[in-house]
UniProtKB/TrEMBL annotation, chain A:
Its cofactor is [4Fe-4S] cluster; FMN. Residues 330-375 form the NADH-ubiquinone oxidoreductase 51kDa subunit iron-sulphur binding domain. Pfam families: Complex1_51K, NADH_4Fe-4S, SLBB. InterPro entries: NADH-UbQ_OxRdtase_51kDa_CS, NADH-UbQ_OxRdtase_suF, Nuo51_FMN-bd, Nuo51_FMN-bd_sf, Nuop51_4Fe4S-bd, Nuop51_4Fe4S-bd_sf, Soluble_ligand-bd. It catalyses: a quinone + NADH + 5 H(+)(in) = a quinol + NAD(+) + 4 H(+)(out). Its EC number is 7.1.1.-. It comes from Paraglaciecola polaris LMG 21857. Belongs to the complex I 51 kDa subunit family. This is NADH-quinone oxidoreductase subunit F. One of its GO terms (molecular function) is NADH dehydrogenase (ubiquinone) activity. NDH-1 shuttles electrons from NADH, via FMN and iron-sulfur (Fe-S) centers, to quinones in the respiratory chain. The keyword Flavoprotein applies.
Automatic annotation (TrEMBL), chain B:
It comes from Paraglaciecola polaris LMG 21857. The keyword GTP-binding does not apply. It catalyses: a quinone + NADH + 5 H(+)(in) = a quinol + NAD(+) + 4 H(+)(out). Residues 221-277 form the 4Fe-4S Mo/W bis-MGD-type domain. Its cofactor is [4Fe-4S] cluster; [2Fe-2S] cluster. One of its GO terms (molecular function) is NADH dehydrogenase activity. Residues 1-83 form the 2Fe-2S ferredoxin-type domain. This is NADH-quinone oxidoreductase subunit G.
């Protein structure tokens, strides 16, 4: 683990005192992008496709494949855009913040590579508004990059030009959905767009646009520096590369670690020192609030997309939320659903009216006013908001902790109804 | 065509459409909210869910929303399986969590799409136990009532108002289950298409305010197919009556013209028929009398020659009868020489070029507007042009394999795929703001540019002796050469015949460019509902205004005048009338002259009549209610006069016979009137038809159903169902299970199937194959030495005189304005908002400052009910303090008066309810 190339994202990451441009360059920064400039955009795309890098925003879609839909060549539209999705609002997820606070140039270099690969001439960082420190540091880094000629016209004497803008979001979880993000960036209401047309073809301001997650982009410099083969070897499982994992909840030492992709969840718990004294693990959400609960028996699963999916959940952002035995699962689910109901954009019916309905029922159950009918209605609502029924993935994601919670913590729900109140509060 | 399987039944449907549209066309009851046939699909409400299967072996399938799914050959879907049925019921259940159950007091009740869809999905038990979300409502002006609690968040209102109609002051605000559709703050909705929100909203969030003040259920209304009377487009409407008064006008679907939308002048302008200003009785020399009055008979039998002035506001039948009665040689179509000139030129062009329908205009891929303010003269045309501006984006979408009905996608593509729109003219409007080429000029210059453009397109076009060619004109010529369906629009509103001539030459030139595939379009906008009907009759020759004045000078001629409500005409008539031996005026609205015989005319809502729209398309309206007082249609008065005087016209016994007579002169009309109802016509929905006990509190004798006197049809008591009568116009839109106007969404194909509809109706003026160039020598010399050139301006709410007698429109009336550039204002030391008068004319104008005023010109707007001669203006005189105060006081007073009138009308309606004498409900005789 001590070989620096094993942890391409975090080796030089320093949240207290992030590397400035010269420090970043002295540790090999902008080499990846310099390598990219020497080859054609198509070759960069090929390298990234070969590296099997999957999007780190939660969906796990192949980055190279995503780029391949962008029109290239002479007939491509005049402007193309790259957008970094740094609107990190998933509850329990704070990896992008860590990257941007601790290694802002890594993101800028990653964006340069991606923008070059798709032929974008303008790039935006769509940053969560509350990430003030990220904004300050990114601003500084962007200025440095412009001054040093890494951004702007004719970068490093090549014909390639890129303008990079930092946009701080006005808020809303839905802005993490790429098409809603595009609408928000255009100054419109942040509601998702129908696909097709996909943003790769008709995106920001009607032009081809790639929206990549911040962590995804941060992986690019090392792929271009060390090659895609090297990147595929970093993993402990089947998916390529390293991943920033983390954990929150009542563990001894909540935090973030860059680990090989596919590290078993148990190892992450061990790194966190296990549960706090006197508490036992009851369940865990593998990658943010919008993933299904997994149980302690799932701890040996490798944290990678397919394995977690097989167990009935999603790896999502890879940041675990642990639920202990002293906290009420119903209360936790209610808390999460309140967040999602609040954050629904209001576009489609199941999400807009279904989530507040679920909140209404959960509130009553939690406060001891629920009955058996409510459980049936909740179950129906889970189906009502499931994949394929809504316009985007917000509501299905929101339903995941609810439907799995109702399965794994059925007794807790029943106790609430039978004893007319929350057993954890008595 | 595509073969699809729905619930294992095979159907053949048009490809390219979405599954929802296909299912509706197959008459299936698939509920939906956010989709609208004119506004495309956005997939917001999820109500139209179905299940799609991969093949015949797939029995699980996956849920889809039909509106977002294109039909494809061999596609297998189901609509009646439990999975999708349950989901559809859940959607309604979720939508209903916050809907107040206030249907009894909702003006939408009984014709509410939400009610229909709720019944259709089978949702009946409420599972939601929480509190409802509530909102504050806004005051949105005199036309629209706002009740946000009823909102089911389908986004249609916002999509219509902002995206479709270009309004800026209504939007979706807030988020989650608190989305609010309204303005930033209370205030009158600014768009002239706001009234469509009433029909676009699937429930009662936006309701018709004048109707809602005293609402009636749809099934209690007696409706008739009608034609709008407030501009030359001739939008198809349904006019609805209850207890003897007209209650509302709604859209009547016509695929070639208005499709699903009306402008607010058309929707709310009908109020004049209920107005206190109506002439309801015969007046002879200022005294109320009746038809048996001996003096009246003597007057009408006067042996001196009778001269007649026709009216572009009256029906073809009325004008024809007057022309027959006085003789074509004594018939004068227009008083104003400029109007005469415009009319004859317009008719000549119509004989050469067919005019584009609104549906055709929506296909345009390049548009030139030559000096016509369509936004204000014919708003519905402006709305169609707006839709054409998306055509290149639609084409681009298809290239990306995105269907053109994917509304959001098309709009995302629109900024980079604009349809070129060239605007030559002055003033600002929503269209001029969208222009890609904009030339600020007066009508003469606009016409000159037009002639130059024609000359650039075809060397054969006469070139104007003039100025150098603007590079923008070069560019425009290139655009038009490349366009497949360019559209040229001009009209009468700037009052300059050269504009018509220039448009004609451009059209000729475009035809020469593509002799094989000429799909270019022309549209000339006349001012009134039946301007072209009058033009048709005027082709028989007749008197010019000047000749008429000469004939009258010796006090030996009598004058008979058909309905005119425009102030400039009445001003002229006052002068002429003084020299007439006898003056007979047939009028709908009180004119108040003492030295004449006034015969009260029934309105469009009280009698049948036909009119020619801007295309020369003949359309007829049918009454919904009996004429009030002694009112009769103009043709009946004239036939009766014919009877008195022994004129052949007196032999007409009914409308059918009269129309046959008209057809002898104009055989092309036969087809139209044959298709018009001759047998049975249902004016009430099947629910009410045959209900004869409604007045049992007055008498047990069943009243006869309403029937128009001397009409060629009778009222049927059977009711009609949307889509099932083919060619016959529908009085209302209804089909089983579909009580709202959305019932016609299912029948679009049927509406297009009739032979007449398919050929877009009967055009009365057929195009002649020989195309003439107009050689126009522009007269650049100044007509008078006036300081400024005065250019006329129009307003939706103000330039049409009839609608100004409708209360809600009167409340929106724009007061007289003079628009000048900032530089002019500065040199005159005037500020915006100040009041000025012109020379010795007492009319006070408000000063408006705009950058869109041509050099040394003033834009003048005078409301249709106020007289201002647009001849000269040498001095603008700032109003004195007293004048300003009096003006403001008058306006403030007016608001009070209007409110009082509204209350009085409301009281009158209430007293009429249930206690109205039966003779009022029954037809005449």
């Amino acid at each position: 683990m001590n070989n620096p190339t094993d942890r391409p994202l975090s080796t030089h990451l320093d949240v207290e005192n992030p590397q400035n441009l010269s420090a970043y360059q002295s540790t090999g920064g902008y080499q990846g992008f310099s390598n990219a400039l020497k080859i054609s955009p198509q070759e960069v795309q090929q390298q990234v496709t070969d590296s099997n890098l999957k999007g780190r925003g939660g969906a796990g879609f192949s980055t190279g494949m995503k780029w391949s839909f962008v029109p290239m060549g002479e007939n491509a539209p005049e402007h193309k855009y790259l957008v970094c999705n740094a609107d990190e609002m998933e509850p329990g997820t704070f990896k992008d913040r860590w990257l941007m606070e601790g290694a802002p140039h890594l993101l800028i270099e990653g964006m340069l590579i991606a923008a070059y690969a798709i032929g974008a001439d303008v790039a935006y960082i769509f940053l969560r508004g509350e990430y003030r420190l990220c904004a300050t540091r990114l601003h500084q880094a962007i200025e440095e990059a412009y001054a040093a000629g890494w951004l702007g016209e004719n970068i490093k004497g090549t014909p390639y030009t890129l303008k990079l803008h930092l946009h701080t979001s006005a808020g809303r979880y839905i802005c993490g959905e790429e098409t809603a993000l595009i609408n928000a960036l255009e100054g419109k209401r942040a509601t998702p767009r129908a696909k097709p047309p996909f943003p790769q073809v008709v995106g920001l301001f009607g032009r081809p646009t790639i929206v990549n997650n911040c962590e995804t982009l941060c992986n690019l410099p090392s792929i271009l520096k060390h090659g895609s083969h090297w990147y595929t070897q970093l993993t402990a499982g089947t998916d390529s590369g390293s991943k920033i994992y983390g954990i929150s909840g009542k563990v001894k030492n909540a935090g973030l670690w860059e680990l090989p992709m596919g590290t078993p969840a148990r190892e992450i718990f061990q790194l966190a020192g296990g549960m706090q004294d006197g508490l036992t693990l009851r369940g865990w959400l593998p990658g943010g609030a919008s993933t299904d609960f997994l149980m302690p028996e799932h701890l040996d699963l490798p944290m990678e997309y397919d394995a977690i999916a097989k167990a009935g959940s999603r790896m999502g952002t890879g940041l675990i939320i642990a639920l202990d035995d002293q906290h009420c699962p119903v209360g936790m689910i209610l808390n999460l659903l309140q967040f999602f109901a609040q954050e629904s954009c209001g576009w489609c019916t199941p999400c807009r009216d279904g989530l507040p309905w679920a909140v209404e029922i959960l509130t009553r159950i939690e406060s001891g006013h629920g009955n058996q009918d409510d459980m049936d209605t909740l179950q129906q609502l889970c189906g009502f908001m499931w994949i394929g029924k809504t316009f985007c993935a917000l509501a299905p994601g929101a339903v995941e902790p609810l439907r799995s919670g109702m399965k794994y913590f059925a007794d807790d729900f029943q106790q609430h109804i039978d004893h007319k109140g929350c057993p954890h509060r008595q | 065509m595509a073969k699809i399987f729905v619930d294992n039944q095979q159907y053949t449907v048009r490809d390219g459409q979405n599954l929802l549209q296909a299912c509706l066309s197959l008459k299936m009851d698939l509920p939906y909210f956010c989709w609208h046939p004119a506004m495309g699909a956005v997939g917001a409400c999820r109500q139209c869910a179905m299940t799609q299967y991969q093949d015949e072996n797939d029995n699980r399938g996956r849920l889809i929303v039909a509106c977002m799914t294109p039909v494809s050959d061999g596609m297998r879907v189901s609509m009646q399986q439990p999975a999708e049925q349950e989901f559809r019921e859940q959607v309604i259940g979720a939508l209903m969590t916050h809907h107040p159950h206030d249907c009894p007091v909702c003006a939408e009740g009984g014709e509410c799409h939400l009610q229909d869809m709720t019944v259709m999905t089978g949702h009946s038990v409420r599972h939601y136990k929480g509190k409802k979300t509530t909102f504050e409502n806004q005051q949105l002006g005199p036309l629209i009532k706002h009740e946000m609690n009823r909102c089911i968040t389908c986004y249609r209102c916002e999509r219509f108002y902002k995206d479709y109609a270009g309004g800026t002051d209504l939007s979706a605000q807030a988020s989650k289950n608190h989305v609010y559709f309204g303005r930033q703050s209370d205030g009158t909705l600014q768009s002239e298409f706001a009234g469509n929100l009433v029909e676009v909203c699937p429930t009662g969030v936006f309701t018709d305010k004048p109707f809602g003040d005293h609402y009636s259920r749809k099934w209690d209304l007696q409706s008739a197919p009608s034609i709008c009377q407030h501009c030359a487009v001739g939008c198809n409407t349904s006019v609805s009556e209850r207890y003897g008064s007209v209650r509302r006008v709604t859209n009547r679907f016509n695929a070639h013209l208005n499709s699903y939308f009306l402008c607010d002048r058309g929707r709310f302008g009908f109020g004049f028929v209920n107005s206190e200003q109506r002439q309801r009785d015969i007046y002879l020399h200022g005294k109320k009398t009746d038809w048996r009055d001996a003096d009246l008979i003597t007057l009408l039998k006067d042996k001196n020659p009778w001269l007649g002035i026709g009216s572009s506001q009256a029906s073809l039948e009325d004008n024809f009868c007057l022309q027959q009665l006085v003789g074509p040689e004594n018939f004068c179509p227009a008083l104003d020489p400029q109007q005469e000139d415009l009319l004859s030129r317009h008719m000549t062009i119509l004989q050469q070029w067919p005019q584009a329908s609104l549906a055709q205009m929506e296909q345009a891929d390049a548009i030139v507007i030559l000096g016509e303010d369509v936004n204000n003269s014919a708003p519905r045309i402006a709305l169609s042009i707006r839709q054409a501006l998306l055509n290149n984006a639609r084409e681009q979408a298809e290239k990306l394999r995105v269907p053109a009905w994917q509304d959001a996608a098309v709009r995302a593509l629109a900024p980079h795929n604009p349809v070129p729109l060239a605007y030559f003219g002055y003033g600002t409007s929503t269209l001029s703001e969208l222009a890609t080429i904009k030339v600020l000029c007066d009508p003469k210059h606009a016409a000159e540019q037009g002639f130059m453009l024609a000359n650039l397109l075809s060397g054969q076009a006469p070139s104007p002796k003039a100025h150098k060619v603007d590079p923008q004109i070069q560019q425009l010529a290139q655009i038009l050469k490349n366009a497949k369906q360019p559209l040229i629009i001009t009209g009468w509103s700037a009052g300059h015949p050269a504009l018509l001539a220039a448009a004609n030459n451009i059209r000729n030139a475009l035809a020469q460019l593509k002799p094989e595939h000429d799909e270019s379009m022309l549209c000339i906008v006349p001012p009134e509902t039946n301007t072209l009907g009058l033009g048709l009759l005027a082709q028989q020759g007749g008197l010019s205004g000047q000749q008429l004045a000469q004939r009258l000078t010796h006090n030996t001629c009598n004058l008979m005048v058909l309905d005119h409500t425009q102030a400039p005409f009445n001003e002229q008539l006052t002068k002429l009338g003084a020299s007439a031996n006898h003056l007979v005026r047939l009028t709908q609205l009180r004119a108040g002259h003492k030295n004449e015989l006034t015969l009260p005319l029934s309105t469009f809502s009280e009698s049948s009549g036909s009119q020619l729209n801007y295309q020369g398309l003949i359309q007829s309206h049918i009454p919904a209610t009996k004429p009030s007082g002694q009112c009769m249609p103009g043709w009946q008065w004239l036939v009766n006069i014919g009877k008195l005087t022994g004129h052949a016209l007196g032999n007409m016994t009914n409308l059918g016979q009269l129309r046959d007579n008209i057809c002898l002169h104009y055989p092309q009309l036969v087809a139209h009137w044959l298709s018009d109802p001759h047998g049975q016509m249902a004016l009430q929905t099947p629910r009410t038809s045959g209900r004869t006990a409604m007045l049992a509190n007055q008498t047990v004798h069943e009243p006869k159903p309403f029937a128009e006197s001397l009409a060629p049809y009778k009222q049927s008591m059977e009711g009609t169902i949307a889509g099932d009568k083919g060619e016959q116009p529908l009085a209302y839109s209804w089909s089983p299970g579909w009580n709202s106007n959305q019932s016609n969404h299912k029948f679009k194909d049927e509406y297009l199937n009739g032979p007449l509809t398919a050929q877009k109706g009967v055009l009365c003026i057929s195009a002649n194959p020989s195309k003439q160039w107009v050689n126009w020598q522009m007269d650049w010399s100044k007509v008078n030495k006036a300081k400024w050139q005065l250019l006329p301006m129009q307003k939706v709410f103000g330039s049409d005189s009839l609608s100004l007698h409708a209360l809600p429109i009167a409340q929106l009336k724009v007061q007289a304005q003079i628009v000048m550039s900032a530089a002019q204002a500065q040199s005159l030391k005037l500020q915006a908002g100040q009041l000025v008068s012109c020379d010795d004319n007492p009319l006070l104008f408000q000063v408006v400052i705009s950058s869109q005023v041509p050099k040394s010109s003033l834009l003048i707007y005078a409301p249709a009910d106020q007289y201002f001669p647009l001849t000269h203006c040498d001095a603008l005189i700032l109003a004195t303090q007293e004048q300003t105060q009096a003006y403001r006081a008058q306006l403030a007073n007016l608001t009070g008066t209007q409110e009082a009138q509204k209350q009085a009308q409301h009281t009158r309606f209430l007293t009429q309810d249930q206690t109205i004498p039966i003779r009022f409900i029954q037809g005449a005789n």
